[in-house]
Amino acid sequence: MERQSILIFIVVLLMIVAEVPVATTFAGLTDGLIAYYPFNGNANDMSGTDHDGIVQGPILTIDRFGVPDSAYRFDGIDDDIEVSNTHGAFNLTSEWTIAAWCQPLNMKRNSYEKQQS
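The chain above was modelled as a monomer; its predicted structure follows.
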């Protein structure tokens, strides 16, 4: 009898918890987005804000999934992709985030630690 009462209590508790709305809000991936560069054959901004990049040196290569022309290879000397600061969109006066996938080539193991010594 006691075991049955505990089981009923648990079932009722789960039903109550399932009915309680959870106030969870997440920012959308485009909320506050200034630029988006998928590198799909070019350095065009796909966010709709027209911050297209001007490629100066790097060459298109395969990305981390093996998709051709979906990443850029920089020589580490003078290659860059220039993006204009249209309407001050890139003024760094508040918090911001940049995300990138990078694959360093010919990087020596522990080279950073050796330079710090």
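The longest strand covers residues 53-56.
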